[in-house]
Amino acid sequence: MAEDFNVKLTDKYYTPDPSYRQNSWVGDYNKAYAEFKNDPDGFWDRIARDLHWFTRYDKVKEWNFPHARWFIGGKTNITYNCLDRHVMGPRRNKVALIWKGEDDSERIYTYRQLYREVMKVANGLKKLGVSRGDRVCIYMPMVPEQIISMLACARIGAVHSVVFGGFGAAALNSRITGAGAKVVITADVTFRRGKSIPLKHIIEEAIINAPTVEHVVVLRRELHQPVEIHREMETDFYDLIKDVSPDCEPEVMDAEDPLFILYTSGSTGAPKGIVHSCGGYMVGVYYTTKNVFDIKDHDVYWCTADPGWITGHSYVVYGPLLMGATIVVTENTPDYPDPGAYWRMVEEFGVTIFYTAPTAIRMFMKLGEEWPDKSNLSSLRILGSVGEPLNAEAFEWFYRVIGKNRCPILDTWWQTETGMHMITTMIGEPMMPGFAGKPIPGVVADVVDKDGKPVPPGTGGFLAISEPWPSMLRTVYNDDERYKKYWNTIPGFYAVGDLAVKNKDGYIMVLGRSDDLIVVAGHNIGTAEVESALVSHKSVAESAVIGKPDAVKGNVIKAFVILRNDHAPSDKLKNELLYHVRITLGPIAMPSEIEFVTTLPKTRSGKIMRRVLKAKEMGIDPGDISTLDE
């Protein structure tokens, strides 16, 4: 049964200058989508032929619900397509990567220089005994070595598992042990808002109960006060690559071999290790980077995401490098040393494509127009948004203040599991504030009820995907039953876990999560992980967390806590619990509010009814509570 979410559907469209459609790779959306629908395998075959295959695939797709195989028999290596292809051609001396540090330091790599650094780190990893199929955990700040390490793993067929540098020791340990990582690559510190934040001690704590870890590679950044390297297990990053060859032949990978594991919070239980493949993922991110962003050879492209998340994998590292683009990467936060920091970088580097999160856009709105107005933003030609729904007010501000009423806005919907963009408004098509847009050519998605039947326009339902796509997750690492649940929730569909509504023109507005994930500043936080962290404190008997709407972050976390009998509520205890969550999971998972309670609403089977807590918190009707235990 579909629900009416009473969403106000605007009729306001923005139509970009016709030149955007004429000059885009896609051109006419309806024509491109019809071509895909008429011959899906032929559609993907034409895209895949742009890339290099050591051995051409025999067949585009095999679909045995709920498992798919793509580019069967094909042999490739994603780094050959990201690096060798360009180094052997006219992009050899083109700038591949521009990095800017908090102290205004800069490093620039051409494709030739990036290629050489990747080869050296790949050979360094080989010295440590890393080989095809081994897992390598990368826990680093946003520095060039993070990207180089990812590419080096892919070069030799090792499976990288990048963990966001803001996670604490317990969250990091669960991801290291979950992947069975053989090597961990980290840094001594990260820099944030002028402060040095230690990372190495988090690694030291995280690997205490991680028996598969044989080596830790440490990038030492504070050279004036270097951390000690414990030689029995640790190696300095640059000692690792000293005197190694700058040549490393790419491992020939089957299209279905795993490329990386990326952990994402589950609605229940431990984080899920999403597995992406070498061939299908490569084709999907190449296609979307080329056609959604419409990247040209002269573009300077800046995605503000961290490679610790899927956006950083697909649209900081692999997609742009497959296209031979010039990418900008920074460790800077958007409001340090002042709220004009990002806009000065746009002007300084001549950024033409800018891809960021709604949280950042709403923060910029709050800080005022005077900051972007101080910089020349005329180089910008395309703006993008990712991570959570872009509300209409933020769209309007982004379009008017940053895009100067001329830049198309790409409000992209996709997930860790999808690997690539799935829904957006293709360049040249009319844009509707608040609506992401339509399924891109190559994707079959709809808004349906729980039985898989499409719901009428204006009626809320569940966003779902009915056909496989190349960059789809292949499984959940060591837990294929968990993978199958994605396809078993709604009959015949991949259930994405989001509520949505579609208008009469087929544009889709994503309303938010339908499960127990909380999206905070674009980061998926599992209620189970936060609740487990709270309960691990000696004072806590039970806990439940919910997401509360927030004007800047989208949502913040509120925790309801039942204390053990020998502990009493106090402000001091609240601070202890906040600190405990920070140390256990990291600052991104910290509740903004803690309320001590004596009971929690539960079903008769003992499941916590978080929607009842949320309804009460927001002053709305909790709906059906017939299963509530009185």
CATH class of the largest domain: Alpha Beta
Which class do the helix and strand fractions yield?
Answer: alpha/beta
Shape category: globular
Estimate percent helicity.
25-40%
Largest sheet: 7 strands, mixed
Mind explaining what this structure looks like?
This protein is of the alpha/beta class. It folds into 3 domains: 18-78 and 277-446 and 453-513, 3-Layer(aba) Sandwich (Rossmann fold); 112-251, 3-Layer(aba) Sandwich (Rossmann fold); 517-618, GMP Synthetase, Chain A, domain 3, CATH 3.30.300. The protein is built from 19 helices and 32 strands. The strands form 10 sheets. A 7-stranded mixed β-sheet has the order 5-4-17-16-18-19-20, sandwiched between helices. A 5-stranded parallel β-sheet has the order 7-6-8-11-12, sandwiched between helices. α5 (111-127) packs across α6 (144-156), α7 (169-179) crosses α8 (200-206) and α10 (278-291) packs across α11. It is globular and about 70 Å long. The model is unreliable at 1-9 (pLDDT under 50).
Question: What key attributes describe this structure?
Answer:
single chain, 630 residues, alpha/beta, Rossmann fold, GMP Synthetase, Chain A, domain 3, 7-stranded mixed sheet, 19 helices, 30% helix
Quick summary:
This protein is an alpha/beta fold.
Topology:
Layout: H1 18-23, H2 29-38, H3 40-48, E1 59-64, E2 67-72, E3 75-76, H4 78-87, E4 95-100, E5 106-110, H5 111-127, E6 135-139, H6 144-156, E7 159-162, H7 169-179, E8 183-187, E9 189-192, E10 195-198, H8 200-206, E11 215-219, E12 234-236, H9 237-240, E13 253-254, E14 258-264, E15 272-277, H10 278-291, E16 300-303, H11 310-322, E17 326-330, H12 341-349, E18 353-356, H13 358-367, H14 370-373, E19 382-385, H15 392-402, E20 409-411, E21 423-424, E22 438-439, E23 445-448, E24 461-465, E25 475-476, H16 480-488, E26 494-502, E27 508-513, E28 517-520, E29 523-526, H17 527-535, E30 540-550, E31 554-563, H18 571-585, E32 593-596, H19 610-618
Parallel strand pairs: 4-17, 6-7, 6-8, 8-11, 11-12, 16-17, 16-18, 18-19, 19-20, 31-32
Antiparallel strand pairs: 1-2, 3-13, 4-5, 9-10, 14-15, 15-25, 21-22, 23-24, 24-26, 26-27, 28-29, 30-31
Helix pairs in contact: 2-3, 4-5, 4-11, 5-6, 7-8, 10-11, 17-18
